[in-house]
Amino acid sequence: ILHSFNLSAPKIIDVNKKEGFILLEDFGDKIFSKYMNKENKKNLYKKAIDVLIDIKIKSHQNKSSLSKLAIYDFEELYRESILFIDWFIEQKLRMQISNKKRDEFCQILHQAFLNIKSQNDTLVLRDYHVDNLILKDHKEPLKQVGLIDFQDALLGSSFYDLASLLEDVRMPLNENEKEELLKYYINMTKENYEMVLREINFFSLQRNLKILGIFNRLSIRDGKVRYLEYLPATFNFIKSNLKSSLFLDMKKWIEELQIKELQI
Fold first, then answer.
1. How much is the pLDDT for 264?
2. Distance, CA of 224 to CA of 217 (rounded, Å)
3. Residue 173, Cβ density class (10 Å: 0-12 exposed, 13-18 middle, ≥19 buried)
4. Interior CA angle at 131 toward 250 and 171, to 5°?
5. Among candidates 173, 177, 243, 241, which has minimal Cα distance to 212?
């Protein structure tokens, strides 16, 4: 799909199914997160946003090419979000959550999802952040952004990947940087600012609740403690998004648990 969109995804050179190997094109080592500095940061983020805008346009122009993708529906979003309860609240904090409280969590998240009226009509790569973008030498600006880690792609909201990029725990942007890039997106697409902001609020909160669960699972189950260094940024994103009017009930639900890291 990405190749048909004329974007930079690694070419598959050869496959050995028996031994389980794939030989992929090498995109080099100019990973955005490592290559980025004060001078090029804004430009690199804008290149990444331009690719998302292009993906949205081409998704709408080539709907038939996306027909085999599963939908990023609420069931999938909830399956991810429940990791917050399973691995952060219960496994990490050792707090037992009743079935009633779980049902409340599901209903609150579902209502917020219904309120944003998300259109599941765009290719969503799902891990679109500066660790997965690689600067390539190419005369076409859009092909200068090398894309990796998209094997979980689904058909969902065009704002999911934008939320992943602008509210990334690995490299948090300050409020001025985020606002400037958000306005750049708005100016390029002529989308409604409030609508875009609400969807980013929703997907950032949902994504970071999931991340809180996943990173604690990686630490507890798999011994990968290095992921814990990202938890302060994760807490900050969750607290920031809970201030949205979209999440008054979710804020109350979390406050009742008296989790000190998430108290606003």
1. 84
2. 9
3. middle
4. 55
5. 241
